[in-house]
Design brief:
238 residues; alpha/beta; Rossmann fold; seven-stranded mixed sheet; 43% helix
């Protein structure tokens, strides 16, 4: 019987070499306010939604052209396109789950000829030189991500699937608790260490491709028990 993997991938700092959302506000917002707001998020003093709203408010005025030009400087991990090809070749469903914004995510993916990769993100528009955020996937029960990544994992995987998460940051820390195999770096790696959640460290997507090839070749795989319990509980609530 074929192993069914479902892969979910963070965007900022995981696919991109820079946290694009943060970089935009450091470039165009009032830096003192930006630093305070980000600090409050990381210390769990405010929700991700409130963080984004406050960051958008820190930008007094912005032109669409200036924003587009800035986004066009952002780069992705050079090994990511090869990883997407690997997933397609192996017929593995893969999704980008971003707590950032569709505005820059779509622009970057299109520039890299990856606009057919399915993604879920918060929404951002530029109206009268102001940044207007919208949160279509908000779940008040999961405040660390304005786009509830856990819900996408539950919606796009089944009890028989092996779930894989790839990420690096604060918005991923609750999400990984629902996944069998975790590829972590940065703050997410530290969180997994602290919470004693098993993970694979990675530097780039070539590392992940190599490990995934090994997982695919194994005759037997064991799901992470705590993740399985959490998923089953969530499936029952659906």
């Amino acid at each position: 019987m074929k192993k069914e993997f479902k892969i979910f991938i963070d965007f900022d700092g995981t696919i991109t070499t820079t946290d694009v959302g943060e970089a935009i506000f450091r470039q165009f917002g009032k830096i003192e306010k930006v630093n305070i707001v980000i600090g409050n998020l990381l210390n769990d003093k405010i929700s991700a939604k409130d963080c984004w709203i406050e960051l958008c408010n820190s930008v007094e005025s912005i032109s669409k052209k200036a924003l587009d030009n800035f986004i066009d400087q952002m780069e992705i991990d050079s090994s990511f396109p090869g990883f997407v090809s690997f997933c397609r070749e192996k017929e593995i469903d893969h999704y980008i789950l971003s707590d950032g914004f569709d505005y820059y995510l779509e622009r970057i993916l299109t520039r890299k000829n990856l606009d057919d990769v399915k993604y879920f993100a918060n929404t951002l528009s530029v109206l009268n030189d102001k940044l207007i955020p919208f949160f279509p996937y908000l779940d008040l029960g999961f405040s660390s991500s304005a786009n509830c990544k856990r819900n996408h994992i539950i919606n796009y995987s089944g009890d028989e699937d092996y779930t894989v998460f790839i990420g690096d940051g604060n918005s991923d820390k609750y999400t990984v608790q629902y996944c069998d195999f975790i590829f972590a770096k940065g703050d997410l790696l530290k969180f997994c260490e602290r919470e004693r959640i098993s993970y694979f460290p990675f530097n780039n997507f070539d590392d992940i491709k190599q490990t995934m090839s090994k997982l695919l070749s194994k005759k037997r795989l064991k799901k992470r028990h705590q993740a399985e319990l959490k998923r089953r509980e969530a499936y029952m609530q659906e």
